[in-house]
Design goal:
Number of strands: 7
Strand order of the largest sheet: 3-2-1-4-5-6-7
Helix content: 40-55%
Length: 394
């Protein structure tokens, strides 16, 4: 942020007691000057701010550039409203005060509050243009806050003067030409016109180019008119003046930042879920396309089977592991059935005396059959002899 030495010029003329700006024109300037001090010193701890008045007995420097807010507030409470503002002389005195600043590295700036019409011959366009050239040569930036609530009053004064000395231009027109003459290539000077009834002057000032340049993300558009109240004032701190309650303003600002971060995270998660659903739908749609493409091939295969006379339905192919277990069980059951069939065949052959049955197809099997036949014949003979002996005994 820029390192500056700033002089605040307050208009304490008799016009400043009017109440068209809340609470009065002078009190609105006082509150706004406190905002200017806090913003300037807050943007750079080495910046300094001074204070002077333009009316009363004459222009008077109340506080030279300082870092102490208490000195500024004490001087403001001692100011009295009277007389007419001497615009040109006040600027010359303020320029001398800045010239004798302690830190020569500080840039020079004037913040001027104007709450009365400029109708004196010294404020003619020619004199203001000469003054603007001198100020620009000395590298002094100027910000003017014009409380333009005296249109009818200024018209009456101009009519009474008959254009003598003033040139017939309004205060706003002359001040615009003055700012154009002061402005350098970097557009470092501004004119802010604040009509009455649009809100607090301090709220409008803090959101204007005059002070927003000293904050990150500020803008410097050369000033302009304020047509509506300061709706954007203190937006970064939830509408709370950081100078009035810094702790509450900081808490609201942190809360707003957390809410913004939460909304960004929710938007990111919703976008990621939407993309995941789209991918899932694409993957689910892919097999359907394959089945549709394979349908004609399956239909042709079925028709070819009908032509060949095959009506056997295709069995569902079990998984490899299950199919292997079933094959092992079937193989074991087949072995047991073969053994039982062999034993039954041998028994039947022996009981019927069928010598042509080939048990195993070798000599060893034939010898075993002969022995079994002999044993069976001998057992039958023994059984017949026993029956004969029992018959004789009876």
């Amino acid at each position: 942020m820029p390192l500056e030495a700033t002089m605040i010029l307050l208009d304490n003329s008799s016009h400043s007691i009017n109440g068209d700006y809340l609470p009065t024109r002078f009190q609105a300037q006082s509150d706004a000057s406190t905002i200017v001090f806090n913003r300037k010193t807050g943007s750079n701890p080495e910046s300094e701010v001074g204070l002077m008045t333009m009316a009363g007995k004459g222009p008077e420097v109340l506080v030279t550039p300082t870092k102490e807010l208490g000195a500024i507030l004490t001087s403001i409470h001692e100011i009295k409203q009277s007389g007419e503002a001497d615009f040109v002389t006040s600027i010359q005195v303020a320029q001398l005060a800045l010239k004798h600043r302690s830190n020569k590295n500080q840039r020079q700036r004037l913040v001027i509050f104007v709450s009365s019409p400029l109708t004196s011959p010294s404020t003619s366009v020619a004199n203001l243009e000469k003054l603007a050239k001198k100020i620009k040569k000395n590298n002094v930036a100027v910000d003017i806050v014009l409380l333009d609530g005296y249109g009818a009053e200024e018209a009456e004064i101009l009519a009474a003067l008959g254009g003598k000395g003033s040139g017939g231009e309004t205060t706003e027109e002359r001040l615009r030409k003055f700012i154009e003459g002061v402005n350098s290539s970097d557009d470092n000077s501004h004119l802010l016109v604040v009509p009455p009834g649009v809100g607090l002057l301090s709220d409008i000032l803090i959101s204007s180019p005059i002070l927003s340049e000293d904050m990150p993300g500020g803008f410097g558009d050369g000033g302009g008119d304020v047509a509506a109240g300061g709706s954007g004032a203190f937006a970064e701190s939830g509408g709370i003046d950081p100078n009035a309650d810094p702790e509450l303003a900081m808490a609201l600002r942190m809360s707003l930042e957390e809410e913004q971060a939460r909304q960004r995270a929710a938007a990111a998660s919703s976008s990621s879920s939407t993309s995941a659903e789209a991918q899932a739908q694409t993957s689910n749609a892919a097999p359907v396309e394959d089945d549709t493409a394979a349908a004609p091939a399956g239909k042709a295969l079925a028709q070819s089977k009908k032509r060949s006379g095959s009506t056997t339905p295709r069995a569902k192919t079990p998984p490899p592991a299950k199919r292997q277990r079933e094959d092992e069980d079937i193989e074991m059951e087949g072995d047991d059935d073969d053994e039982e069939d062999d034993e039954l065949a041998r028994a039947l052959a022996l009981s019927r005396g069928d010598e042509d049955v080939d048990m195993q197809g070798d000599d060893e099997g034939a010898a075993e059959e002969e022995e079994m036949k002999r044993a069976l014949t001998m057992s039958l003979r023994d059984y017949g002899n026993q029956e004969k002996e029992q018959g004789k005994k009876k």
